[in-house]
């Protein structure tokens, strides 16, 4: 009996083992790898780029591609040492959130039983995700995250194939020195740094300062900001006042687009702008900016013109373009390479045991000719860092990225200095009064947009005592409506504005009838959850219908720059602010000068008394939603003139709208307008004269201080 039981246990163990690796001649049918990337949210376009690179690599590995000189390419398809097992990727969505990245890694390892992990683009997310993998003893390969601190933690299961930011930061100054030798007297020695305040941006700032000192450059300005900020005016003013010759920028796609447009509007020029990859190499960066992107330089790890000297690059890029309709970029190329590095290790390990894959990774030695990257190869040191990687510098020339450094890989001559906006207007450095005037002006323009957005929110509250948590998502719908009117029908945003307002007003009425009216007599939590759930639904529909891609309205009738003395503003912003002011005045006129407005105000004052006077409160509630949604739709339409559109854009402005309403006083349209302008000005002044990274915190602190003294807000009723 005991012998029979033992035989059963051994057989069962053999079957169990055979499900993951060879056991008695059996091989697994597939090898599953987990991958954590931002697939939704504001960073989803970059995440989708990397997913495309990963999917193409898996396709090539699984089918075999003998005419491509890639690792595993001549093995006939699949992983030869595991009986031709196919590779499969299971994705987790980090949403660019470190905690979500960690939880998704834990899910993929513990529930999905993946053999190894890939990820996670953002250094902060990679830090937490790889920490989970370390705790669970599973190999984690980072193909894109570049924070130097990731390989200083003493982890045993972490490997990184890409060079890090310390190497890239040094590349900047090596490039500048080479440029100075080639162009005597034309390369300045002063540097300004613009960067996000997360791990990625902070590391770029730290190592740029370190290498600037080593290479004898002077850092004269350092401006940090929150990623996905709605405004960079104050940061740009700091850069302008610094008189720096060179700008180093570490920004994601929305911020890099906003920064370049802002520099054009304010007439800020540098001899050269050096981007630290990220948003500057996103496939949507050049389409978003058009001619404004010309001459910008960014560090890269890949460029398609490398194909002129390395045929494998052209082969893979042509295939990528046939699949996805666009060229590869540094992100997709690194993710593509990461899959091959990890698959090569699993194949050499001939096992899915984590320890054997880890040992194989440590012995990795892939030659440069088998990579689409301009590296000497892939080989990991004791920290898990690839020692054979390097960066390149590319410049945007005629709408394409071309390699300009190292010189032996350059396909085009460097264009230096960066073509000034001007020839359009002379660059000048303003004094303190000029900076103050610019900050106040830009703050007023931003504030008027915030005011219009907040007016719709406070109107609904004032009439119905309901907080619309989907308010920011209504703004998102207005922006999408404007973008598609421009892209599909060629309508200028200002021409499309009335139509967008009407559509959003109709949506507001429909929302009232289907979502709000059923919960009117419920408790406040039911009302809150109704609007909160509506916001999630609208955001999810936008993700599904429009994809997470960033979209940007191009040249319009309002494009250009208006300069008056020391103040320079984009004509788009000026027109948007003027439009916001006109719509706000129209709203005031409706509320104060019309019978409907009087009825609305009466309903807000005392619903029961208004009904006794013959006013239909149901109609007034529907009207409040129509006006509120119409106002925020107008704000979205005006914002779309100069701000990128994406499904999560409402979150960027939604919080500011709530702060604006609280400061102005819930229910007070006039208070919302006053508070919006005040917040816009305070944010810009704080960014210039205090610290850009704390400018919104100061606005929130101002709101709290006012509410402490006057709980009802500036113009709210006690």
The stretches of 5 or more residues where confidence is low (pLDDT under 50) are: 1-24, 422-427
State Rg.
Answer: 28 Å
Q: How would a textbook summarize the main sheet?
A: 7 strands, mixed
* CATH A-level architecture of the largest domain: Orthogonal Bundle
Total strand count, please?
A: 16
How is the largest sheet built, in terms of strand order?
7-6-8-9-10-13-14
What count of helical segments does DSSP give?
A: 23
Given helix and strand content, the structural type is alpha/beta
Task: Give your account of this protein's structure.
With 718 residues, the chain is α/β, with parallel strands linked by helices. It has 3 domains: 27-163 and 310-378, 3-Layer(aba) Sandwich (Rossmann fold), CATH 3.40.50.2300; 166-300 and 398-409, Response regulator (Rossmann fold), CATH 3.40.50; 432-549 and 572-709, ABC transporter involved in vitamin B12 uptake, BtuC (Orthogonal Bundle), CATH 1.10.3470. It is 53% helix and 11% strand. It is built from 23 helices and 16 strands. The protein has helices spanning 2-18, 44-63, 98-110, 123-135, 165-182, 199-214, 233-242, 253-265, 285-289, 311-324, 330-349, 354-362, 432-464, 471-489, 493-516, 524-546, 571-593, 595-605, 607-612, 617-639, 649-664, 669-689, 695-709; strands at 30-37, 86-93, 116-119, 140-142, 158-160, 190-196, 218-225, 246-250, 272-275, 297-300, 366-367, 377-378, 392-397, 400-405, 561-564, 567-570. The strands form 4 sheets. A 7-stranded mixed β-sheet has the order 7-6-8-9-10-13-14, with helices on both faces. Strands 2-1-3-4-5 form a 5-stranded parallel β-sheet, sandwiched between helices. It is globular. The N and C termini lie far apart (85 Å).
């Amino acid at each position: 009996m005991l012998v029979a039981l033992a035989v059963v246990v051994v057989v069962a163990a053999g079957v169990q083992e055979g499900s993951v690796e060879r056991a008695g001649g059996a091989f697994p049918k597939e090898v599953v790898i987990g991958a954590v990337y931002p697939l939704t949210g504001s960073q989803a376009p970059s995440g989708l780029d990397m997913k495309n690179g990963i999917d193409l690599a898996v396709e090539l590995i699984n089918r075999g591609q003998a005419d491509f000189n890639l690792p595993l390419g001549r093995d006939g398809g699949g992983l030869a040492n595991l009986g031709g097992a196919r590779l499969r990727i299971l994705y987790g969505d980090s949403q660019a959130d470190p905690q979500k990245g960690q939880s998704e890694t834990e899910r993929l390892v513990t529930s999905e039983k993946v053999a190894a992990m890939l990820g996670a683009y953002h250094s902060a997310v990679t830090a937490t995700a790889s920490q989970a993998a370390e705790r669970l003893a599973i190999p984690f390969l980072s193909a894109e995250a570049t924070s130097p601190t990731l390989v200083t933690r003493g982890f045993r299961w972490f490997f990184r194939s890409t060079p890090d930011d310390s190497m890239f930061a040094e590349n900047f100054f090596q490039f500048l020195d080479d440029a100075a030798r080639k162009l005597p007297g034309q390369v300045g020695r002063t540097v300004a740094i613009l960067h996000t305040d997360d791990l990625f941006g902070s590391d770029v700032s730290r190592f740029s300062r370190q290498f600037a000192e080593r290479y004898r450059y002077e850092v004269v300005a350092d401006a940090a900001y929150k990623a996905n900020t709605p405004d960079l005016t104050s940061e740009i003013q700091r850069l302008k006042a610094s008189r720096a010759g060179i700008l180093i920028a570490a920004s994601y796609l929305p911020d890099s687009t906003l920064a370049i447009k802002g520099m054009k509007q304010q007439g800020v020029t540098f001899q050269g702008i050096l981007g630290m990859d990220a948003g500057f190499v996103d496939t949507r960066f050049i389409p978003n900016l058009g001619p404004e992107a010309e001459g910008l330089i960014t560090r890269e790890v890949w460029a398609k013109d490398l194909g002129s000297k390395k045929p494998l690059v052209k082969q893979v890029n042509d295939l990528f373009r046939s699949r996805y309709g666009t060229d590869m970029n540094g992100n997709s190329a690194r993710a593509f390479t990461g899959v091959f590095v990890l698959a090569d290790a699993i194949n050499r390990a001939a096992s899915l045991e984590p320890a054997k894959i880890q040992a194989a990774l440590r012995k990795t030695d892939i030659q440069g000719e088998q990579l689409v990257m301009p590296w000497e190869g892939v080989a990991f040191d004791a920290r898990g860092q690839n020692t054979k990687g390097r960066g390149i510098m590319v410049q945007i020339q005629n709408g394409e990225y071309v390699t300009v450094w190292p010189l032996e890989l350059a396909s085009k001559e460097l264009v230096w200095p960066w073509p000034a906006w001007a020839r359009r207007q002379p660059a000048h450095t303003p004094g303190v009064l000029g900076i103050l005037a610019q900050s106040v002006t830009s703050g007023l323009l931003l504030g008027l947009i915030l005011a219009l957005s907040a007016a719709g929110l406070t109107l609904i509250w004032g009439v119905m005592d309901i907080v619309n948590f989907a308010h920011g998502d209504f703004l998102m719908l207005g922006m999408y409506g404007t973008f598609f009117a421009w892209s599909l029908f060629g309508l200028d945003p200002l021409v499309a504005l009335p139509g967008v307002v009407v559509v959003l007003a109709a949506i507001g009425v429909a929302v009232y009838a289907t979502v709000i009216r059923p919960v009117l007599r419920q408790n406040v939590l039911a009302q809150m959850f109704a609007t909160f759930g509506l916001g999630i639904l609208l955001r999810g529909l936008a993700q599904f219908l429009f994809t997470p891609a960033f979209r940007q309205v191009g040249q319009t009738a309002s494009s250009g720059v208006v300069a008056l003395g020391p103040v320079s503003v984009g004509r788009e912003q000026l027109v948007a602010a003027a439009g916001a002011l006109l719509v706000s005045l129209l709203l005031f006129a409706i509320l104060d000068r019309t019978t409907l407005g009087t009825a609305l105000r009466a309903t807000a004052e005392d619903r029961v008394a208004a009904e006794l006077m013959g006013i239909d409160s149901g109609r007034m509630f529907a009207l409040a939603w129509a006006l509120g949604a119409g106002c925020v739709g107008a704000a979205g339409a005006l914002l779309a003139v100069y701000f990128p559109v994406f499904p999560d854009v409402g979150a960027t402005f939604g919080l500011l709208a709530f702060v604006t309403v609280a400061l102005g006083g819930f229910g007070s349209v006039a208070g919302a307008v006053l508070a919006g302008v005040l917040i816009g000005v305070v944010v810009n002044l704080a960014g210039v004269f205090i610290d850009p990274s704390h400018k919104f915190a100061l606005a929130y602190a101002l709101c709290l201080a006012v509410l402490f003294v006057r709980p009802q807000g500036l113009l709210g009723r006690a």
